[in-house]
Amino acid sequence: MQRSDHPSAKKARGAFFTPPAIADYLASWAVEGDPAAKILDPTCGESVFLRSAGVELRAVGASQATLKDQVFGVDLERESIKRSRGALAREGFDATLLVEDFFDVPTPAQIGCPLPAMDAIIGNPPYVRYQEHAGVARRKSQAAALAQGVRLSGLASSWAALLVHACAFLKQEGRLAMVLPAEMLTVGYAEPIRRWLLRRFEAVHLVMFDRLQFEDASEKVVLLIARGSGGCNAFSLLPVKDASDLASLRLFGPSHYNVAPASEGKWSDLFLTVEQRQIFQRAVSDHCRPLSFYGSTELGTVTGANSFFALSESTRLEFGLSPSQLVRISPPGSKHLKGLSFSKRDWTRLCDFGEAVWLLHPSKTDRSSALRSYLSYGEKLGIPDGYKCRIRKPWWRPQVVAPPDLFFTYMSHRYPRLVRNSARVSFLNSMHGIRLRKDAPKAAASALPLLCLNSITMLGAEIFGRSYGGGILKMEPREAASLPVPGPRALNAAFEVLAPEGRRFDRDLKEGRWVSTIERVDEVLLQRIFGLSTAEADTIREAVVAQRNRRIGKPVGDV
Ligand SMILES: C[S@@+](CC[C@H](N)C(=O)[O-])C[C@H]1O[C@@H](n2cnc3c(N)ncnc32)[C@H](O)[C@@H]1O
Asked: Mean per-residue pLDDT for 183-195?
């Protein structure tokens, strides 16, 4: 195996190669029957796109001899370019291939550009996350995007700048056909890209797959197909099951629908059908308020080393630490938050089970022998050398957050949960806290955990949250604050009906029977109080399931 083929080397430069069915489809669209078309793949890898483009050009009448001046590829990996040459030769033609960092290639507007202006740009740019896409490479890519009028933040993955820079090589009325990560529709860092697409192109199509398309990458992808110039205010969306559906896909056919996305913010609601979107929007605007209406979202304590700073009862006793040197917390993680509230009894039970229910928080002047011996144990473990501890004075005293009224579990497989903090304990950053406003309705602390288990709020979580590695739904504080929850009138009215059943719900949830709980809440809140018909409530429930399946990579139709 060449060093450049090693999985870690491939991951570092985002080298995941596109399945031929996708490359063929995009290349054939990009050529558009024009035998003179000039086509560029700016990060061509082993040339799956260039092969498809050459074959298509030949099929529409291009002469074999001119393909070298029509098909262009760039890649920073010499070995990939070498293999590309071999692959193209086997197809019987040649292309112009450059071993270069694409960000170093001057654009046609600059002096020294080695490439002509293109009729089409095709390809699959590398997806390298910002943590690894750092230093000079990131600065260079940001500058290239900025030169095209797109300001990207330091959180942008590498594909974003690459896409923008590539379009600097595209003729004004040219065509773009790219494989991009599906997160381009939802993540905050891609917002400048979304706005730019609307400004730059006359028509934008997005092809979305129900199933993952890359065997060796866990990333979900969309196909971005755009053409012309002058801007547009709607996209056409084309949902397909998998790459085998592409052959029969017609970009202006009946299977597409047009959607005008919000001029700002995420596009994740693009996945909804028109009917789902209308029911959702009506219910939200007539009956819901954002969670921020009830209170503020707060971050939990960042200790820098939970395994040291969060202690079990037996560790406390072993070192002779007294409760006054610690504060009670909900233990790290959120698996234990199953019911509607986290009570003193729950805390005691976890304490008895040996969970880390204490957070080290001695007074600054504490010089007790118990503390000294615990700190020297930490020093042996190297705890003070960790980043968070190094920047904290003293290193052993993490900030403590006052007990919030509710916990918000922000990383979830199914949906985020609100749980009342009846134990009045503090918390770590494995969840968010919600502090209710002083004038929030009295019932809010008890009612929100139950009433948020409705399908409108859950669909809101799918739309406003972000899909994280492995399909986990993550909600940052700002996203949690925007979650649509029942407004005060609906909240009070629904809680009056449902409060007497509270114990049963709590038990059911603890035992994992959440579907029946949601059905009952939907029946009372969505149907009786919001006034949705049974068919409308079903439509929203289907939308939640489809969104969730999309997120976790299950077929959309599965229940
Ligand atoms: C996702 S792969 C796609 C390759 C090919 N287009 C395909 O779909 O099979 C991304 C490619 O980009 C290359 N690459 C990464 N950063 C690059 C850069 N700054 N300039 C040129 N190529 C780059 C990698 O070496 C890798 O071959």
From this structure: 87
